[in-house]
From TrEMBL:
This is Ig-like domain-containing protein. Residues 1-20 form the signal peptide. Gene3D superfamilies: Immunoglobulins. Residues 128-204, 211-287, 404-468, 487-565 form the Ig-like domain. Coiled coil: none annotated. Keywords: Membrane, Signal, Transmembrane, Transmembrane helix. It comes from the Eukaryota.
């Protein structure tokens, strides 16, 4: 009889002999075994006893890991192994085995076999026994070079040589093997599992998701306050955190928490937290500005938060303010509150009456509150301006404007191209100012969405068009970037070219970023000229040959060829190779006609 179990079975091969005096002994096939969590483990032994004992005298045989009151506890009676343990001895044989299914890390222990006869005190235990180590899986990450990582499925002890690993990316099977190469810019999740281990798999590894950045105090920040920034990102392996201030190369701090004591105007600016692990990096930006308190005598004031906003074209912008007035003014005395950017005859112009903002502006104040807001939808670059809040009362002179106000900068998106190596490019969605919200970018290839994220790796051989959009920005995306299309090459004069003429070649192509142009002559390594136009003065037979124009930008390159041959005689054609053949054929054809006419006559 042989044991049968689904999944991976760990077989123990070598023999360990435990022998006492007088012929009592236990042979274990192996004394150490490493098994994957969720797999099935098979342990076997062979026992002997003195010749004077009859097989019928053996009354019990079992396996154990624990003792109680100095006596072994049968593994089958242990609730931790309930429904997972089988053991048996082969018929008319002293060979026995233990089978444990769906092993757990808590099963790691020393397993011993004991047997006893029907005579009091006549028993024997094979000791030391078999040490079982149950391991889970981890994915180890090693950088191969600047653009590639090697993932390895790792266990804390050495598994059987027959172990087969499977790799998954975002829940989809991709390959079999102990290791996997992936791009260091990947935003996917990878994990491995051992075939037959009852779907027990490693935790997934992935780069940091876009960090979440919070600030405390979360309301207005006044000069002299202690300000604490906190950064967190979902990542495995766990991310490390570094804090930078915009336009500074050296980090301000490391760790999830960054505290600025005695906050002043000098601390104002954009701070970004970079989360990084072996799989990649990601960052988020937050802008810190002490609340701008505009206050006149007698308690009139306006507090803006924030005082600077960068927004993507097509997005929605929210600006808020808080105002106060002297105690003698009652809330019911406030007759009007509005926002403005322009003045006419020295008086502010209500933004709602400006045709440029028609149907795009909403503002109001919360009930029984001095908290007011301005919302601008589908913002345009022309909306970039300083926005101020004004309120006025029924009383003469009872009006106040918060100045300076809130500066809004509206930016379009551009795709920046950076070469990673000879075969890969990195595209980054870029704006001219740091967006105030946590922007989520979407990438398109040839008008079809392909992924989300602030950057995108692409092959330098790609002929596709890539653009990025800000999610929720009303469809305003960046101009597409793409390599040069096949250039169009023209020559002037376009008719015949005679020796001594000045010949001008012109090259043009569709590309973004704009292409640069280089002219080569066939079989020459050095370029003849650069730029869209190449002029040959005093054209001679020595200038004959194939010329090609190469158009190149950060996305790729393309070229077109033109053949130049001076006309051999006045009145001949520019394209002498082609027209000479045509003239020869015409002459032969004319001669045949003449001969035919003469023959008929």
């Amino acid at each position: 009889m042989s044991p049968s179990a689904g999944g991976l079975v760990v077989f123990l091969l070598s023999v360990q002999v435990i022998q006492s005096q007088d012929g009592w002994r236990v042979n274990y096939r192996q004394t150490d075994v490493c098994a994957a969590k969720g797999s099935t483990v098979y342990i076997s032994c062979y026992y002997t006893y003195p010749p004077g004992i009859d097989p019928s005298d053996i009354k019990d045989r079992f396996w154990f890991t624990k003792e109680k009151d100095g006596e072994p506890v049968d593994l089958k009676t242990d609730s931790e192994y309930s429904g997972r343990v089988t053991y048996r001895c082969y018929s008319n044989s002293r060979s026995c085995y233990l089978l444990i299914t769906d092993v757990r890390e808590s099963d790691s222990a020393e397993y011993k076999f004991t047997f006893m006869t029907n005579k009091p005190g006549e028993k024997y235990t094979g000791s030391p026994g078999v040490t079982l180590s149950v391991t889970g899986f981890q994915v180890q990450v090693r950088r191969s070079d600047s653009t590639w990582l090697e993932l390895t499925c790792h266990s804390s002890c050495v598994l059987s040589d027959r172990a087969e690993y499977y790799w998954y990316k975002n829940e989809e099977y991709i390959k079999r093997g102990s290791s996997l190469s992936v791009s260091s810019g990947s935003t996917d999740r990878y994990y491995c599992y051992l075939r037959g281990s009852y779907s027990q798999r490693s935790p997934a590894v992935y780069g940091p998701q876009r960090p979440s950045v919070s600030v405390s105090p979360s309301a207005e920040m006044l000069e002299g306050d202690s300000v604490t920034l906190t950064c967190s990102a979902d990542a495995n392996p766990a991310a490390s955190y570094t804090w930078y201030k915009e336009h500074e190369d050296s980090p301000r701090a490391s760790g999830q928490i960054f505290t600025i004591t005695n906050f002043t105007a000098e601390h104002s600016g954009n701070y970004y937290c970079e989360a990084q692990n072996e799989m990649g990096r990601s960052n988020s930006t937050i802008r810190l500005i002490p609340s701008s308190v505009i206050q006149s005598q007698d308690g009139w004031r306006v507090i803006y938060y924030p005082t600077y906003v960068c927004a993507a074209k097509g997005s929605t912008v929210d600006i808020s303010s808080f105002y106060t007035h002297p105690p003698r003014i009652r809330s019911s005395d406030i007759k009007d509150r509005f926002w403005f950017t322009k003045e006419k005859d020295g008086e502010p112009v209500d933004l709602r009456t400006d045709s440029e903002y028609s149907d795009r502006v909403t503002y109001g104040c919360y009930s029984n509150s001095k908290d007011c807001y301005l919302t601008i939808t589908d913002v345009r670059e022309s909306d970039s301006a300083e926005y101020k809040f004004r309120f006025m009362t029924e009383k003469m002179g009872g009006k106040y404007t918060g100045s300076p106000g809130v500066t809004l900068s509206v930016t379009g998106l551009q795709v920046q191209v950076r070469r990673l190596n000879s075969t890969w490019l990195e595209l980054t969605c870029h704006s001219s100012c740091v967006l105030s919200d946590r922007p989520k970018y979407v990438w398109y290839k040839n008008e079809e969405i392909i992924k989300t994220g602030s950057s995108l790796p692409v092959s330098s051989a790609s002929t596709d068009r890539y653009s990025c959009y800000l999610r929720g920005s009303c469809g305003h995306g960046s101009p597409a970037v793409y390599g040069p299309q096949r250039p169009s090459v023209s020559v002037s004069p376009s008719a015949e070219m005679l020796e001594g003429d000045s010949v001008t070649l012109t090259c043009s192509t569709d590309a973004n970023p704009a292409a640069s142009y280089t002219w080569y002559k066939e079989h020459e390594d050095s370029p003849r000229a650069s730029g869209q136009i190449f002029t040959i003065t005093d054209f001679t037979a020595e200038h004959s040959g194939n010329y090609y124009c190469e158009a190149q930008n950060e996305m790729g390159r393309s070229n077109s060829t033109l053949r130049l041959i001076p006309s051999s005689e006045k009145g001949g054609s520019t394209w002498s190779t082609t027209t000479t053949v045509f003239a020869s054929i015409s002459a032969v054809f004319l001669l045949i006609i003449i001969l035919a006419v003469l023959y008929i006559r």
